[in-house]
Amino acid sequence: MRVKGYGAVTPLEKTMISAQVSGEVVKWHPNFVQGGLVKRGEVLFEIESDNYEVALLQAESLLKTAQAQLIEERGRAEVAKREAKSMPDARVSDLYLRKPQVMSAEASVKSAEASVKLATRDLDNCKVVAPYDALIVKRDLGTGQFVNKGTNVGELYNVEKAEIVFPIAGFDRTFLPNTLLNLPAEVSTREKFSSVRSGTIVRDTGIVDQATRMGNIVVEVNDPYGLKDDLPRLMFGTYVEVSFNGQGLNNIVKLSQDLVTNNKVWVLGDDNTITQKVVDVVKEEGKLFLIGGGLNSDDKIVETIPEYAQDGMKIKLASDTKEGDDKSSDDANVISTSVAQSNKDA
What is the mean pLDDT of the chain? Predict the structure, then answer.
């Protein structure tokens, strides 16, 4: 079975870009505009960094001072330790051995190291980089503008991967394979000049919508905008058809829908008489019905049904009409079940 569904292409993730430090914008990427494409790690915009460079130098200076004090205290502790060997144990205390002073100096070094780390991070954050290959959806800044920490200045869509979430009706879920994860799928655009991309089913949402009684399946497409490979673009918002292989069915006959009325098919009986047979319509596929039961392999299906057909009516086969004879209103064409079963175009 070929299972089909329809849905819109959406980004795997969306990100609101904001500055992590305050300052004046001194530069921004030429592609940091609506519709621009940037690659992972490229600098989107820069904030004036002088204040943060000064803060880093000051933090490094405090770290050096704290490290010097720690060296000095450790030296005094060593001297006290040697002197304590010639003194009674009762007079030797942690304070005499300068253990509190050493611990305080060590804490000062760790505090200074933390300040250096924060100052380094703030300096690095003066350059705001793209977290992934991205499509720029919105930008709200310009050169010379002062931005505050945490203010949203743009929106990005991830173009490394795209998702299509599409519903599956209850009668189609019967034909789904037992395992959907990593099943290949075909994604095609619904346009005059359609394009086809390969995708992979990544999950079933696991919930049936109470309003539509449908469940959703998610297909993932790599590099939808064709940045890495020369592939057709699959732009966000495009309405697409998704199809993939479902469960296999055996002994299926494909018939045109106009040959099936109220789950009944006209077949040719003995002595060129016609009769109706009740059939089991498994699924509708385009202009065809998939018949799963009710027909035998040797049945001959009437393709051209006479007017006012009745059970037991005797007919003349069109193939038996001689050239030049007037065609009777009761003439009929027939096709064998085996032909209908093997002919995919029916």
Answer: 85
